[in-house]
């Protein structure tokens, strides 16, 4: 039985996370494996990182699910990976680490913007002798949570199932094959998606004591 570790890299607390939602969908493709889910935020707060690092490095495969923050990985996840690297340096880097897969979702409708974040994970794997395999780049991630049962998410959800099936099959292979990243856009009018996304900032601003005009301020303008 394979040991599969899912790492949730979302820093969200007390609210739904697209990254965790994608892990829940993906885990259904590994019913014949020993599945372990590690939440980065909880791992760091509970001071269980060292124990979790042992689990990660002794696994057969690691699937990292993360949102895109400022065209990169969240700072908390970056710090976690840095600590994992330090752990490997102190305990000894293995000759061959686990296979690693990256799932990165963004609020942008274009999934290609996630590529640099995937490359960061790929580069990190080289430093700990882990075997990076491929990434799953998801555009319009929040839509998967808010409109999961609508026609707009039917096609991307089917594409996600294909990607997760590919990960499952790849983990089970003895001989590795070259597999390209999976690019998964949303099936929704781009202009309408951007309009809806922009509207969500208004109640968030009000909740934090701001007005609409405050969203257009340029405090760093010379």
From TrEMBL:
Residues 2-86 form the Flavodoxin-like fold domain. The lineage of its organism: Bacteria, Bacillati, Bacillota, Clostridia, Eubacteriales. Pfam families: Flavodoxin_2. It comes from Youngiibacter fragilis 232.1. This is Flavodoxin.
